[in-house]
Amino acid sequence: MNWSALVRPGFVLAAISLMAVGDASAQEASGKPNFLIIVTDDQGYADLRAYKHHAKDVKTPNMDRLASRGVLFTDAYASAPVCSPSRAGWVTGRHQVRWDPKSSFNCGLSKDDSHVAEIMKKNGYRTARFGKNDYGGSSLHRHNVREYPLNHGFDEFLGCSAHGHDFFLLSKDIQKRTPDPKGHSAVVGPLMHNRGVKEFKDGYLTEIFTDATIDFLKRHRKESFFVTLSYNSVHHLIHQSPERYLDKYGVKEISNYDPNKDGSYAKWFQQYIRLGKITAEEMRRYYLANLNCLDDNIGRVLDSLNEVKLADNTVIIFFSDNGGAPTTGASNLPLAGAKFSLWEGGIRVPFILSRPGDPHADETWNQPVSTLDVLPTCLEAAGIRLPQALDGRPIAKSDESRDLFWRWGKEGYAVRSGDWKLLHNGTVSGRKPTAGIINRKNLTKGARLFNLKQDPGESRDLAKKHPEMTQRLRKLYADWSEEVAGGKQRAN
Ligand SMILES: [Ca+2]
After folding, report:
1. How many CB atoms are closer than 10 A to CB 200?
2. All residues at 6 or more sequence positions from 413 whose CB lies less than 8 Å from its CB, including other chains
3. What is the C-alpha to C-alpha distance for residues 305 and 141, in angstroms, rounded to an integer?
4. Residues in Cβ contact with 345 at an 8 Å cutoff, skipping those fewer than 6 apart
């Protein structure tokens, strides 16, 4: 398949329909590519080996394998620095502040915009989501809300709707015995499964989501499919990995939560999401163990695509929903900041676009792209007409011209235009961060201007040196704010 013409939908369809049909399944003959979207959780910018800037101690051979068959992006951004709004953005291709102007943890899905799964389903795709769903508080644990996958275009779902889930405790019994099984952002007990729930007496979430995905690929190999595989790895509780991974990284197993001696789950959970019981150095090892297991499981999915002979007709897009978190042991170096903030470390994420036969395979692109581009990129590759007024756009080479915007926290906002970034009221984590996180405590107040090309770590505020640029970016943000609030339309 020749993807060089991907910037033009008509050419894509022509290219796909001309491809050689080796293992002539009905699905391949239909000429539609399949889609597999792999979302990781809180993965650090330096925690992908394929990057030149990778952390020295990180190994991700399977993510690297994906990068080598696709394009790796150094300047890819999530639309928010935390899980829920970032996810609401990518699945609609619309910036989530359009329906959640205060930009909160609880944005939900837009009532007026189609979810990517709805569009895919309407166009004949078999759809499934495995893993973390998470559009914020008011939709958690409920089957009867628009935010539940089966109510917005997915045929199948196995996963959780919360920010996190215990990686091991997945039984009905533990749910019954825990005083607050849903009392925290992380939960214990069965997974949500289609219109009911499903318990697992043994098993590990990363492997369960992988197994479910592989099973789906095998069952639907003769149809066109759109699958999102949203791991909750490498989110807290980061210390929870299968023993063989802990052994490999030289850290000890910590006993699972036990309601008979640990009190509430929330209280137990809180002990492990900050440094204290676990040192910073140990936390990094736990993180690497968890990431290693994640990488192995991504490898299993890639192998299964080869096994069912669909690798040559499946577009894979891989990214993290936000930057590395301050206390999981993630590394965002050389960027500053972390999850929960609009410093680069909170919003710039690992991102791979892997298209079969892409002539740009194994290239690294430095142009700014957004997770809001995932939906339009998929639709264009499928030959589906794009909805009006998307904030994302199909990813194409040398598209340098766009401006990107973020809003978060008290009067917090950021704008990127070319190499310049304006950051207003950047915050830092109140918790002591691990070694891969730089906090710029002295630069948090007011408007700070950075040149990301010269200073990716946002250490030198140039606002006073370049007042005209500061003003230009302020104006861009003001215009954007007006537009997303329903005011004048602006060309994307
Ligand atoms: Ca996240």
Report:
1. 15
2. 342, 405, 406, 407, 423, 424, 425, 477
3. 31
4. 44, 45, 323, 324, 332, 335, 336, 337, 338, 339, 437, 438
C-alpha 235 – ligand 1 centre gap (Å): 7
Give the start-to-end residue ranges of the domains of the chain.
9-397
Strands 71-73 and 351-354: antiparallel
Distance from Cα 120 to the centre of ligand 1, integer Å? 24
Distance in angstroms (rounded) separating the CA atoms of residues 272 and 238: 8
Centre of ligand 1 to C-alpha 350, Å, is 12
Structure tokens at 416: 């990127």
Rounded distance, CA 176 to CA 303, Å? Answer: 38
* Whether 439 contacts 428, CB under 8 Å: yes
List, as ranges, residues with CB under 5 A of the ion ligand 1.
41-42, 83, 321-322
CB distance 492 to 390 below 8 Å: yes
Q: How many residues does the chain have?
A: 492
Q: What is the pLDDT of residues 297-333, one digit of tens each?
A: 999 999 999 999 999 999 999 999 999 999 999 999 9
Going from the Cα of 43 to the center of ligand 1, the distance in angstroms, rounded, reads 8
Please give the order of strands across the beta sheet that includes 403-407.
Answer: 403-407, 413-417, 420-424, 447-451
Residue 263's SS3 state is coil
Residue 13 contacts residue 31 (beta carbons within 8 Å): yes
Q: Any idea what DSSP says for residue 354? A: E
Class of domain 9-397 (CATH, top level): alpha beta
The pLDDT tens digits of the residues spanning 51-73 come to 999 999 999 999 999 999 999 99
Residue-wise pLDDT tens digits, 362-391: 999 999 999 999 999 999 999 999 998 899
Contact 99, 112 (CB under 8 A): yes
Residues 6+ apart with CB under 8 A from 198: 158, 190, 191, 192
Say if CB 336 and CB 344 are below 8 A apart.
yes
Instruction: Give dist(CA 198, CA 205) in Å, integer.
Output: 12
What's the CA gap between 440 and 455, in Å, rounded? 13
Strand-pairing partners, residue 320, are 40
Whether the predicted pLDDT of 17 surpasses 80: no
- pLDDT computed for residue 489 by the predictor: 52
Distance from residue 322's CA to the centre of ligand 1 (Å): 5
